[in-house]
Structures are given as C-alpha cells and as structure tokens.
Amino acid sequence: MGTPVKKSEPENVANVVDLYVDQLGPCGIPLMRLRHAACIVGDHLYIHGGRSGYRALRDFWRLNLKRLEWEAIQPINQTVGSRPGLLEDHIMVNYGSNLFLIGSGSDYLNRQEMQIWKFCPESWNWSRWIACKNSREHPLGRRSATGTMVANKLYIFGGIVDLYAKPTADLIELDLDNQAWSIVETWGPFVISPIYGHSTNFYSGRLIVFGGIKDQKAQNAVWSFDLSKS
C-alpha cells in the first residue's frame, strides 16, 4: 500500500513524490479546487483532479470521514501514463469493490473517445479500462455531464463534447459487468434540449434530470426518463 499523507503528520508531506509533490495544500491537505470528481466509499470520501485557479490537477485523495484526516494516494510502481492525467468536470462512481473514473483527458478538445480508469482500493493501483470491441458505440469524451449508477449500469447524460462548448442530449449506457457502451434512444411527446451542468438522479425506475445550462442560460425544468421503456 502507498504511503499516506495525513493532516496530523505534516512532516510526511515530503515523502509524496512525482504526481503529487507540487499539488499539496498547506499541512498535507488538498489544494482548493472546483470541477473535481468525488465519491464516497465506506468511511472515505475520494476526490480526483479538477482545477485550482488556472491550474489543472491530477492528484488523488481520500478523507477519512470519522477521523477527518486526509491521505494523498500514491499508487505503487506506476508511471504517469498508467494512471489518470489532468481531468476536470469528470465522473467518479463506486461499483463492487472498485472506483471508476470516467471522462476525457486534457486533450478532450481533440474529440477523443471517453476514458475509463479503474482504481482498486485494496492495491492502491489504477488500470486503464477498455470497453469491449463488440460495444455498439464508442462515445466521445465529454465534460460537465452527469453519471448515475443503476444496478450494474452507469448512465451518462448531457455534457460538453468539443472545443466550442457544444452541449449534447445523448444518454449513454455503460455496462460495467460486460464492459460495453451503448446509446440509449430517448423518445416521447417532449424532447429534452442539449444541456450541461445539470443534475441527474434515479428514482422509481426513472432518471430525473433537473436544471443545467441551455443557450448560456440556467434552466429550472425537470425531465423524467423511464428506463423500463428504453
């Protein structure tokens, strides 16, 4: 297991090397940030990346919610290319005993495919997760989308897919058991517009979407999508 850096032991800050050495806040706590990904697993809050001022981040931390101590997670024997790079406005979810990080790298402006990274809390190591070749779709990377877990499937909705901040109304399904992407067809008497910066939650068999930004204006509409009819 990697060497933790705790708020109560600031003298250990110097032991954090490579990826994290220049991204520590005072006393071994994370820098102030926004646009990061976060997820709670057990008694820990995990956070990854984001932006601090004009600076993109790629550090990875967890907060023990009982002891209120931070740890900088330093993977063991992994090069920079074998773990996530600079990411912001991305998604982190927990499934099984692993964490999954979904988004696009700092070159998302080149419209690359969506990246998936898996983190194993037991070994403290990352692995690049490749969707199987028989996936019906290989979606482009995006930011400011939402990710909602329903059983073994992650539903990603909306977000921005290119340099010109062009939003989408795509609903994408990632089957985490079979490592397969697919586009979910949506239909009904009303059509949701492309949006980003919204929220999506699961309730009684439906995805509930609220708010977001459309045509550079904040929205207050509520949309419901019945997954049983997809």
TrEMBL record:
Source organism of the structure: Hypsibius exemplaris (Freshwater tardigrade)
Keyword Repeat: yes
Taxonomic path: Eukaryota, Metazoa, Ecdysozoa, Tardigrada, Eutardigrada
Keyword Repeat: yes
UniProtKB keywords: Kelch repeat, Repeat
Protein name: Uncharacterized protein
InterPro entries in alphabetical order: Kelch-typ_b-propeller
Top-level taxon of the source organism: Eukaryota
